[in-house]
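Reminder: ligand-aware prediction takes two inputs, not one.
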Amino acid sequence: MTDARVRCLSIHAAYECRRTGVCCRSGWDIPFDAVEASAVRALRLHGRVLLEPQGGRPAFAARGADGACTFFNGATHACAIHEKAGHETLPLTCRMFPRLVLHDPRGTFVSLSHFCPTAAAMLFEGTAPVAIVDAPTRLTRAAPLDGLDATDAWPPLLRDGVLTDLASYARWEARSIDLLTTPGLTARESLALLEDATRAIVAWTPGDGALIETIERTFADVRPGSPSIAAACDPAVQRWLAARLFGTWIAYQGRGLETIVRYLGMCLHAFERELEQCGDPLQAIRRSDYHLVHESSSQRLAMMCDEPAPRLRRVAGSGARERTP
Ligand code: SF4
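Here is what comes back for the chain with iron/sulfur cluster:
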């Protein structure tokens, strides 16, 4: 049975749009379904252009020469639709951004894309431990929460040919978030500990007892070595990795828990490359999420991360890598 609860990470619970306007100026196609298009036409917004549906394509917001959406007001950073008719009249794409949603039989999980500067800044605010909490209305009011619907899927794979059970997967996810955000460690050290713990967990066989107990024992036995000196940005990068793990679609698209951990390794590598180029950790996280979340297919990333030791080459323009043939 599907749980109706919606959960998020504590670091995202206070999220509210601060009108940076980045999403409205990104040059993205903003589709409107028939109902949304009709509601916007009825507003008669002067000088704003909705491109009519053509050949099976839905209506789209026109864009200016600078790529900005026609409904965006550069002076006020406000959306003309939002201003005149409220948040609920926005097209679904805009109501959802920057939310990333997974539905499975455990309930609904809302994470965020940190390409949004507001979401990225939240990673650098506060030092409280990261917890999984009930999502507040401000995160869920984008309803219907559009995302990957895995409510009828089998539970995530432990490894090729072996399923987890949902309680065990949930425990692995929660313990992994705790481990990834261990204070005093670098992001790379915490990820290495998660790799080691997960490698031990995926070797589980039914003769070992309940999987959930193996997960508990393995995480309880994790002993961080002597940490190196963490950079000032490491806690934020750790929180970012936790956010890429929480409610990840890769759980249902990849072939086991190690695929998810390799995906986190790909995320961290992307961040390090971006940081090398721009020197600003917040911008490096934004650019990484732009490529990993908005420019990549998560199914394709999952397939790339399924293999234990893929030969890799860089994906143009990102820190992400793809397997060579
Ligand atoms: S429709 Fe409004 S919220 Fe959506 S991209 Fe355009 S200006 Fe931004």
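Confidence is low (pLDDT under 50) at residues 310-325. DSSP finds 13 helices and 14 strands in the chain. We will return to this case in the review session.
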